[in-house]
Amino acid sequence: MDKRKLEEALFKVLMVLSTLIVMGSLTVVMVIVLMRGLPALNLAMLTQLPRDLDRQGGVLNAIVGSLLIGLGATAAAMILSVPIVFYLQKDYAGRSRLASVVRLALDILWGIPSIVYGAFGLIIMLYLGMHGSLLGGIIAISLVELPIMVRAMDEVMRLVPKGLKDASYALGATRLETTTRVIWRQVLPGIVTGILLAFGRGIGDAAGVLLTTGYTDKLPTSLMDPVGSLPLAIFNLLLSPFPEVQQRAYASGAILLAMVLLVSIIARVLARRFERHVVR
Amino acid sequence: MATRFETGRGDQVAPSLPASEKGAAFRRLKDRAAAAVMAVPSVLVIGLVLAITLALVVKALPILSTKSLAHLLLSSSWHPLRGEFGFYAFIIGTLSVTGLAMAISVPISILTAIFFAEYAGRRLRAVAKPLVDLLAGIPSVVYGLFGVLAIVPVVGALGARFSDNPTGYSVLAGGIVLSIMVFPIIISVAEEVMRSVPREAREASLALGATKWQTVRHVVVPSALTGLVAAVVLGFARAFGETMAVLMVVGNVVKVPHSIFDAAYPLPALIANNYGEMMSIRLYDGAIMLAALLLLVVVLVFNVAAAIVLQRVARRVA
């Protein structure tokens, strides 16, 4: 075998090996977290509030808290990102200086670590005299979600065939009409995927809520109440010196992972369903 | 919905009609109004970046006025009660964990990206790509839990033999967990960049008798190089600011680490662990916010650089 072929074979092996490492680490992370978590999981974990210093009961406070934070933040991020995504289209600001600055700003926001959003949220809350609360968490997490959502939606927006828009304009439709009646259906799968993707990130983000929500074993009754969340529940329970409490951290980890996986699967199924309307 | 496209209506609604046509004028007004409404959140996004930067700068000013920035960054004396805030140990902690993660992740991610972009068949990619995306969706606290359950014990066993830290909570554990977390970022950007290399370039190389790997090495990688660097930079920036997963496995000891088995205390962990006490000690809040500002500045510079490079790559394709 000549040297070139040998080199080719060697790198092929290395590439397959690397791919296996990447896929393997995904598998190992999921298997280990589920394997250690599922045995500790029971109905009480899902349906009861913590009792007896976390040794009894469940993590319902954290599950409900995470869902509330995730829903609130996703709604807030959605209200902002849908207009942004349409505005970045060529038909609107697409090629202007402003649009490229907005894009750059979104890239920057995408890269900002969630702990920095948490710190920013904390500064705002201190300024307003607020305490750790559901509202604070929603604000911080919506900032975390915004660039993720916009990026996912924008990717799909780019795939809209130019001919489709041209056809609509040729019929005399305005940009708004083209957007709301033609483009909208085309990008619906992407919008739904983007929203769910961001929701998945939102419920899993720990650093953002750490600085802004406080923590409580109770269910929140208003936006101003402190609130528990799954990531922080995992973090706190894991610090306990008692093995039986640590078990509950593993179970909470499995719950969070399962929730995120479920959201991701739903996103895929919905995207596929809405894709029926898409013209290629 | 479909009526929009029926003939007989379209001829009345061409936007070029004179504004005297009442319906057309109203529709155009609606269009303009909608555009203006959509512009608002877009401009807010720019304001948000400025607001975050400004807020952190204002909060960090008190401590910046006591000592020079260079002194704060290069002093390793961290005694908040005595008013001494030297960030050196934290900066080295962050850099060593991040550096180690990149050393593990970059070669593996780039090779995987090459495999996806150049070698893997369509069907394999259709299965593998969503899995890589899934890797990006797993919450950091779950990675941290995984690290505590699986990585820390192994590193601890190694540490007991080769160092004086048998706990396993170390730079190495942090680096390994972090390397897995940056896989999807580097892979997806790198793959996209290599795909943007025109097919003709590959075909020319293959037609000259080059093997596939030679084509990758001498044609694809060189012409995608800036984009590949951007992919690595994005991965680095993500790793640099990652908080929870690292915090859970890295030990959090305020000391400059001397080996990969030593514990470290990265900047994000400093913020996460101490924001609670920061109000009760003078200047402490400034120090914590300075740590956040440092993270922001590093990540911002890296991301802007990568964004500019990648925008240029995208323009080349278009």
In short:
With 280 residues, chain A is an all-alpha fold. Helices cover 74% and strands 1% of the residues of chain A. In chain A, strand 1 (50-51) and strand 2 (56-57) form a beta hairpin.
Can you describe this structure?
The complex is a heterodimer of chains A (280) and B (318). Chain A is an all-alpha fold and 280 residues long. Chain A has one domain: MetI-like fold (Orthogonal Bundle), CATH 1.10.3720.10. Chain A is built from eleven helices and two strands. A two-stranded antiparallel ribbon of chain A has the order 1-2. In chain A, strand 1 and strand 2 form a beta hairpin. In chain A, helix 3 packs across helix 10, helix 4 crosses helix 6 and helix 5 packs across helix 6. The longest helix of chain A is centred in the first third of the chain and has 35 residues. Chain A is globular. Chain B is an all-alpha fold and 318 residues long. Chain B folds into two domains: 63 residues, no CATH class; 249 residues, MetI-like fold (Orthogonal Bundle), CATH 1.10.3720. Chain B is 73% helix and 1% strand. Chain B has eleven helices and two strands, in the order H-H-E-E-H-H-H-H-H-H-H-H-H. Chain B has a two-stranded antiparallel sheet with strand order 1-2. In chain B, helix 5 packs across helix 6. Chain B is globular and about 70 Å long. In chain B, 47% of the residues are buried.
